Amino acid sequence: xxxxxxxxxxxxxxxxxxxxxxxxxxxxxxxxxxxxxxxxxxxxxxxxxxxxxxxxxxxxxxxxxxxxxxxxxxxxxxxxxxxxxxxxxxxxxxxxxxxxxxxxxxxxxxxxxxxxxxxxxxxxxxxxxxxxxxxxxxxxxxxxxxxxxxxxxxxxxxxxxxxxxxxxxxxxxxxxxxxxxxxxxxxxxxxxxxxxxxxxxxxxxxxxxxxxxxxxxxxxxxxxxxxxxxxxxxxxxxxxxxxxxxxxxxxxxxxxxxxxxxxxxxxxxxx
Amino acid sequence: xxxxxxxxxxxxxxxxxxxxxxxxxxxxxxxxxxxxxxxxxxxxxxxxxxxxxxxxxxxxxxxxxxxxxxxxxxxxxxxxxxxxxxxxxxxxxxxxxxxxxxxxxxxxxxxxxxxxxxxxxxxxxxxxxxxxxxxxxxxxxxxxxxxxxxxxxxxxxxxxxxxxxxxxxxxxxxxxxxxxxxxxxxxxxxxxxxxxxxxxxxxxxxxxxxxxxxxxxxxxxxxxxxxxxxxxxxxxxxxxxxxxxxxxxxxxxxxxxxxxxxxxxxxxxxxxxxxxxxxxxxxxxxxxxxxxxxxxxxxxxxxxxxxxxxxxxxxxxxxxxxxxxxxxxxxxxxxxxxxxxxxxxxxxxxxxxxxxxxxxxxxxxxxxxxxxxxxxxxxxxxxxxxxxxxxxxxxxxxxxxxxxxxxxxxxxxxxxxxxxxxxxxxxxxxxxxxxxxxxxxxxxxxxxxxxxxxxxxxxxxxxxxxxxxxxxxxxxxxxxxxxxxxxxxxxxxxxxxxxxxxxxxxxxxxxxxxxxxxxxxxxxxxxxxxxxxxxxxxxxxxxxxxxxxxxxxxxxxxxxxxxxxxxxxxxxxxxxxxxxxxxxxxxxxxxxxxxxxxxxxxxxxxxxxxxxxxxxxxxxxxxxxxxxxxxxxxxxxxx
Lengths: 271, 639
Ligand code: SF4
Ligand code: SF4
What we know:
Chain A: This is Electron transfer flavoprotein subunit beta. Chain A: InterPro entries: Rossmann-like_a/b/a_fold. Chain B: This is (Fe-S)-binding protein. Chain B: One of its GO terms (cellular component) is plasma membrane. Chain B: Pfam families: CCG, DUF3483, Fer4_9. The complex is a heterodimer of chains A (271) and B (639). Chain A has 271 residues and is of the alpha/beta class. Chain A folds into two domains: 16-203, HUPs (Rossmann fold); 216-239 and 249-271, no CATH class. Helices cover 28% and strands 24% of the residues of chain A. Chain A has helices at 35-47, 64-72, 90-100, 121-129, 184-189, 203-206, 228-236, 252-265; strands spanning 16-20, 22-24, 31-33, 53-58, 78-83, 105-109, 132-143, 147-153, 159-165, 168-172, 191-195. In chain A, helix 3 (90-100) packs parallel to helix 4. Chain A is globular, with a radius of gyration of 21 Å. The N and C termini of chain A lie far apart (49 Å). Chain B has 26 helices and ten strands. In chain B, the strands form three sheets. In chain B, strands 4-3-5-6 form a four-stranded parallel sheet. A four-stranded parallel sheet of chain B has the order 8-7-9-10, sandwiched between helices. Chain B has a two-stranded antiparallel sheet with strand order 1-2. In chain B, helix 25 (605-612) links the parallel strand 9 and strand 10 (620-623). Chain B has helices at residues 2-28, 38-57, 61-86, 92-115, 127-150, 159-183, 188-198, 236-243, 250-254, 256-259, 266-278, 317-321, 328-332, 339-353, 361-371, 394-397, 413-428, 445-449, 453-468, 480-489, 502-511, 541-549, 573-576, 584-594, 605-612, 624-630, and strands at residues 280-281, 299-300, 399-405, 433-435, 471-477, 499-501, 524-527, 553-555, 599-602, 620-623. Chain B has four domains: 2-117 and 124-198; 229-282 and 300-354, Alpha-helical ferredoxin (Fumarate Reductase Iron-sulfur Protein, Chain B, domain 2), CATH 1.10.1060; 373-511, Rossmann fold (3-Layer(aba) Sandwich); 524-630, Rossmann fold, CATH 3.40.50. The mean pLDDT of chain B is 94. The radius of gyration of chain B is 28 Å and the shape is elongated. Chain B is an alpha/beta fold. Bound molecules: iron/sulfur cluster (SF4) (2 copies). One iron/sulfur cluster (SF4) binds at residues 245-251, 266-267, 270, 332-335, 337 of chain B.
């Protein structure tokens, strides 16, 4: 299960924090531990024998508690809760808390399964804390007191090795190992402790209207293959990018200009 | 000389036996508390021994006669020896009786020795090979000792030499029979066995009863450890039960997992528990090991984890996960030991405390929690297969005669054919029935066998709550696992129902002349008894009577009825999927082929799936509902 996972040497004082959220089962919509967050916790548990700190920011009530206990069921004895209402923006609470009691390695899922699900929390948090962010982490290969080597998941199973200077936030991808089973007894015996924090109203979301996402129909690729070999080749073929350009060693401004240009051409940005 | 020595020898032997008994009892009492009626048990013990136990022993006629002679002779001879030689009673009659008793014991002992000349694999060797000799020495010694007393030999015959030999024989005999009984020799089975019968956890099993439902875990105390981690986590009478094992290996001989070369042997498992009870290693165990696991590598103690968290403990987890919970071992065990209870107790610890259900286990349990079915299907699609059948849903009709429990087979295309067939039969018989539809949830069977008692109880309570909303007379299901759980395991959680398996129900319909059937043509048929219908619920007849009603040329497999071999599908075994040398369904299919049948009739979605998974060419697998549906004489279509 723990492929290439680096174990921390006890002398290395790397404190690990895992940020978790409430997940929602894709079929039934029942609340549960969120898949990517659980994978992040799995990764943290594989790093060292000492327990990672697990933090959740959000509403705590009868319906969310059993879902949160799922993380405790993976073998951590305590879950810290920064209690927020459903409407609150959790980033200020998290960054405030992490500012006060920092951690050199923060792991979290890439995207929540509930709420806005924008995938922006890791970015906003990294921004607020001034930490480095690595997205789509699949494996942590090595961790020292100041440095982590991770593999980042890219499309089609490709991996990119990244060295990152700590402190850092690693947003974990579904390419990482599956989270371990929840042990009922651990889940029910673990402690959920509330930490007092400020709450920041998120005015913007108040007007929002939520509706279930619909799967968009997939465009069928018409394959005129006559043999099994052709069919296989067609199925395994990379989508050929047409046009576009690869920019290497350009300045941030030049890069941004190029991206803006594409976005305008595609009609994503309309100004 | 011997006459003056005898009272002392007997007194010392009895004293040592009592000390041993107390020590052994202390080991058992380390276990958890258990609700048993001690006095009623002790009163019932002789009958349980003479009737219930011998009922099982009698399946092996040779040994049952042997045992009557040996045990009866021994008990009588001991009592008489104590009276005659311990208290120095003078009685010619008693002396004759002692002669007769030791004679009977000798005959028994010789027969034991004969069985052990080339013992079958299932029997343990080691100390057990010594036992017939000890029995003979005991019997011969008292036999010869009685000869002068009855006047067949002159007093003082044989002189010092014979006296010395007799003394040696009596010392040996007493050591094995009296002291060994409580200090852990082969005779321990008599002492522990008698008490085990008295304090059995499932007293309902005696007097022809049946008790097969697993016992519910109590979740009230959140701090109490769940399941069995170390030997002392068993109840004290479970520990006592392990100690009663005679190592006869009847369980081993019928265990499908053992035969398939999976790392399980129910006899060794019980012996491992005995090792754990007293502390030590399995090096001195003298029977067949777990396939693929050499002896001497495992050890444990009463307060040590049975499945070690690191390294090796008393046994490995895969041993526990290989069991299909088929209950063949329990059915065969002459000492009425409950292997399945013990295995599930230990699984509960692994699943609930450690979160270590192997292979697909975690995924299946997660699905059950999130979607109420093991496959993770949308619970709202449970009725999709029946879109054209217009089944009455209980939520609409509120009351019905028969509630048809569909089971998770509703998601499986093969089982949907069985369900359709059964519905056709119900309609043809004019039965008023309805289904729960999407309100039905998994019964909790698989979760429970995988040790996830929490999820089982959760599902059970939800189902019981749903069932409370409606009124119906009985529940009928095509799935023996749901049948067993609804009938035998829900009552403890507050749900009591009249439940029928569909074969029983169809047989009643046939008897009540509600079905008109023509003969089924299609060849020779054999019937495979599902474990959860047969051994768990004692229904062997109805399916066979139905086949006969169809005019079927029915042949029986060597292993059928209560000896039926499991298909390999129970107890979550296909989910935990412990590797072996063969697959259990392949072995069962060989049994089927050997019967000469070209169709095997089944009554369980699990059996259907397992047996149909065997590669062709092989006999066809048909549910009895399908056979009946094919043979319905349908009235002229009513347009
Ligand atoms: S229940 Fe069946 S599989 Fe399990 S140990 Fe007994 S005989 Fe073997
Ligand atoms: S458990 Fe029962 S059947 Fe198995 S060896 Fe012991 S006494 Fe015999």
